[in-house]
Amino acid sequence: MSKIVVKGGNKLHGEVNISTAKNSVLPIIAACILSEDKCVIEKVPMLEDVFVISDILRSISADINIDKDTNKVIIDTSNIKDCNPCSELVKKMRASFLIMGPMIARFGKFRLCLPGGCNIGTRPIDLHLKGLSALGAEVNVGHGYVEASAKKLIGDKIYLDFPSVGATENIMMASVMAEGETIIENAAEEPEIRDLAKFLNSMGANIIGAGSGTIRILGVKSLKGSTHRPIFDRIESGTFMVAAAITRSKIKINGANEEYLKPIIAKLTEVGVHISSQGSSLIVDGRDELRPVDIKTMPYPGFPTDMQSQMTGLLCTVMGTSIITETIFENRFMHVAEMKRMGANIKIDGRSAVIEGVKKLTGAEVKATDLRAGASLILCGLVAEGETEIADIYHVDRGYVDIEKKLKALGADIERVNE
Ligand code: UD1
């Protein structure tokens, strides 16, 4: 097991290159099931979750070639025979459910063990299943498995009770070859959904409105292979923006789409961070005095839940009272107990964290309890007095490429220790 050891106090400087988005790449790899032709995904981030979804596809006889030197992934699903992927792999990651839509669309069936993932809430899949049922699939859940079958999928109007990212993606993928038109209302609007639709349309799908609350999908007969380069990871960009802010430094972030980062830029600007764009780069300057703020996580274009723990870390170092309210996941304050070990002053009140800024954080032995929590503890370690050891770094490796190398190149005193 790896841990990361950070000695706090160094200012950051220089540039960092952002990888492509994990949350785009995972559904896009799943979407490759939809065509018998080869698909090529470029600039894929070499992350644990990418390896897991690739192994899940391999477990049903897909041929996946991952070139770690060029970051190119070639996916050939022409040999898929059975629709019952390896349960041990599926349990590793919640995003495994993303293969449900493509499997039912191409093979008319699947059997999947109920997926796992970060421990940030119960995370049901009822909306995904409701969508598949509306398209005509017969869905059964029992004994830890979800099974579905359909002779034919037929387009329908589907209203999502909540704009779930995964449900929107699954229904979009399930309906691309359904008969007639599918309309998803109250769809999630995250940029990764627009990216997935772009890829599906390049395969021959007919999707309009992805990235808005209403998505129309006109079913086509079949899809062909395609090549795609996913969008930059807005959460990784946001994490490095907070790294600049928490260390009161100025850095350049290469690979940042300003439009997709609007909710994060707006909040950091309110905190007092100066952010300007230069093409696809952002200059982030956190050297001015910072102010406390209130934040509520919301579906896109609201403030992303995936940036909540990093902002909590930052606000611990900003004098005054900040309140963060988490509305997306019910159990996403696990980093708070770890931050308190580092001297943070945070009180949890239901779905809100009340943060009183402290003069200094102090290094401690802490644990990454989930992916973003782990990242936030690394950020706190960058400014804590003395040494911070973050254990269970495998959570962080699910979503950040070489986080310690990127921070080290910016001047942080940080090492990975393999035990
Ligand atoms: C995706 C992202 C994750 C991000 C989350 C919210 C991927 C691979 N992961 O996860 O990083 O934190 O969006 O932005 O893209 N819900 C239901 N029933 C459902 C589905 C969801 O009640 O059928 C609830 C969940 O429990 C949660 C909320 O809806 O409380 C949001 O979940 P959702 O948008 O589906 O997140 P994911 O797609 O799992």
UniProtKB/TrEMBL annotation:
* Residue ranges the record marks as coiled coil: none
Annotated metabolic or biological route of this protein:
Cell wall biogenesis; peptidoglycan biosynthesis
- Asked if the record carries the keyword Protease, the reply is no
- Subcellular localization, per the record? Cytoplasm
Q: Which residues bind phosphoenolpyruvate?
A: K22, N23
Any idea which positions bind UDP-N-acetyl-alpha-D-glucosamine?
R94, R123, P124, I125, D126, L127, D306, I328
Top-level taxon of origin: Bacteria
Asked whether the keyword Ion transport is assigned, the reply is no
- Please write the reaction equations for the catalytic activity of this protein: phosphoenolpyruvate + UDP-N-acetyl-alpha-D-glucosamine = UDP-N-acetyl-3-O-(1-carboxyvinyl)-alpha-D-glucosamine + phosphate
| Residues annotated as catalytic | C118 (proton donor)
Query: GO molecular function terms here?
Result: UDP-N-acetylglucosamine 1-carboxyvinyltransferase activity
GO cellular component annotations of the record: cytoplasm
One biological process term from GO is: cell wall organization
| Pfam families per the UniProt record, alphabetical | EPSP_synthase
* Top enzyme category: transferase
Report the EC number(s), separated by commas if there are several: 2.5.1.7
PTM-bearing positions, type 2-(S-cysteinyl)pyruvic acid O-phosphothioketal? C118
Which family does this protein fall into?
A: Belongs to the EPSP synthase family. MurA subfamily.
Q: What does this protein do?
A: Cell wall formation. Adds enolpyruvyl to UDP-N-acetylglucosamine.
What protein is this chain from? UDP-N-acetylglucosamine 1-carboxyvinyltransferase
